[in-house]
Amino acid sequence: MKKRIIVLMALCFAAVSGMNSQNNITGKVTNEKGEEISYAAVSIKNTLLSVTSKSDGSYLLKNLKDGTYVIECFYLGYEKQTDTVVLSGASIEKNITLKQSQIVIDEVIVQSTRTDNSSGFAYSTMSKEDIQKQNLGQDVPYLLGNQTSVVSTSDAGTGIGYTGLRIRGSDASRINVTVNGIPTNDAESQGTYWVDFPDLASSTNSIQIQRGVGSSTNGAGAFGGSINVQTNTLNTKPYAEVINSGGSFNTLRTTLNAGTGLLNEHWAIDARASRITSDGFIDRGYSKLYSWFVSGGYYGKKTTIKGVAFSGNEQTYQAWNGIPETKLNGEPKDSLFNYLYNNLGYVAPEDTMNIKTADNRTYNIYRYKNQTDNYKQDNYQLHLIHEFNKKYTLNIAAHYTKGKGYYEEYKYNQSLSDYNMNDVVVGADTIKSSDLIRRKWLNNDFYGVVYSLIAKPINKLQMTIGGGANNYVGQHYGEVIWSRYASNTEINHRYYNDTGFKLDVNNYLKLNYEVTKRFNLFADFQHRYVKYNFVGIDNNKNDSTQTAKFNFINPKAGLIYSPADNTKLYASYSRGNREPSRGDFTENKFKSQPKAEQLNDFEMGINQNFKNFAYGVNLYGMFYKNQLVLTGELNDVGGSRRMNVDKSYRAGIELEAGYKASKFFSVNGNITLSQNKIEKFTEIIGNYDTDDLADTIIYSNTNIAYSPNVISSVSLIFTPCKNFDITMINKYVGKQYLDNTSNEKRKLDPYYVADVRLSYTLKLKSIKEIRFTVSLNNVFNKLYSSNGYTYGWIYGGQHYTYNHYYPQAGTNVLGGVSFRF
Question: Is 173 within the bounds of a domain?
Fold first, then answer.
């Protein structure tokens, strides 16, 4: 992998040394009234060169060889302008006039939560075209898996079903996710469950990832990154699309898209329906996913009213327990027996046979045919966008999300008293335990209002005032739907019931001021108020009643200096504060009260764009107080347990580069080198030989769990002919520890995976577009695990440790074809 990185860097330096032409293109970007437009994006088509216009509308494209170039210019609220220029031994001036769009375009919806070249944050954006080339039915985390500092994983091993990602080692509960500016993180766990949005990518126009704290946004505060999803923008022409894909593990996906185009110059409706099924790589790790998406509204010259609704219905067979290390490595059978006994509390002959005969890499501990997770989530959004004039645009959105579902489990030899069931007396015998089937339910409602006012009160100042108020009610309850010994219960016997309430109110102000044409200052200030209420009896028969309140101040500031139009130097400071999740309060193993976290994030870097070469370097230092780190353990629904540590940090360098060697070949790559440390970590080990049930071991300067020191991705793109791409994607992830002890016996080994993707687009008179896509995944059949967990205890004077891993599929293939009419 290091050799590949060296080759990539050598190509980059070779590109720089070859740039000796002196031809320039200069000009101004104005509207039809002659008013200058600042921050417009000006680029040369089919190259990597892109600049941003200054406050007076001026732009400069430097160092171009003689030839013919196509200039593209875009700015929010205006139609994209394309012009052709010819350079022949001299620089030229090319002024660009943008025509105001007939509508207030959809991008206003998310502009307040995204960042751009006028802000000093590290980010990357995937376009609709990039998404379409990759989208074969896998979840969003897999589509983002090759972005800078990102690691993705899948419970079932295929990228379908329960998937997740980490940014700079930070897990999903620390990554803020919005769809059209509406928060989608679960209010209690703070994570995002992408399985609840099946095939959302097919209705997505673009996705932006901000690394670090980033700019202020709605929803849970970002501690590792932000993901902003913008769904499809207006299609002015009617269309219909049929997409079919499938491949290994009986994976099948069908998607139907259609849109009316702009009706009577003001109205439009778009819709999608999707079905995805897969057996999964893990035994019985199947997924059955259904979803729909509808958007429609009124588009006026100054006002847009748009409704968005999407729904997902998922059933997945439970694969969140992973595979025990003893099974994965083919260790002695008595170790496997101990694993079964400790996890099931009872070992049936069928369980013993299953663990002995099942494949080492696809083993699933569960055998009950309906050991499934079942959940349905409906999302509704209503957006009002009004442009008062060129200087002021308002966006107000109301939202409501309804979720309801359960996961069903067969449980062996359970104590009846744990389920509020009486002992069963049969003659002279008293039965205190029983096999049973239980369902754990979540019934939740999430609703609120978000707003933003984008203003340019003076020529050099851009500001955004925004915020929102969101409320959550989540009812948690458990039912016994069958028991071998029913005791005093009826069917659907409810044995616990507790409810969580959460209010989240935030307001923010963002400012960007152009001091000179080369120097910008920006500032960002946010206040968040969070209130938790828990009432009822939880599944451990404990009274969950408690209240917690938090007030957070999150300031951000920075500067940008552009010594040349194609060069940006930036530095920023951001503070983030976050409340603990519901599980930190209610599932704390040793009952210590969780604390709120604080993060001070320092970022600085440089970006440069040339005709055939672009690169970026970003240095970051993220310094935490009371960070809630993963302990390596899971709760009974596959969620990660966490605990506070006093002082910790993540620091590193992110390198990104792209080189277009010719019209037939280009290279894109990124690498993150980092250190992720905890100053002092106390490991708490359950000790069943003592009365206090806990031993402690103190460690100094240990590695943060799930935080690799090296993450890299290199894509080699061949274009042998027009509309045909062959891409080889190389991903490397360094060693990760499963807990915070830096114990070499509790780790994920480093892995390198290569995929090859082929994409060909055919355009006909009768059909607008036919796209063929084939993805050959893990072409070298690497045997690796992308995730895992660990737990242990002391018994009989011995320390027992159990590691579990999530193996990913070996060589597999997905292919698809789409028809657009």
Answer: no
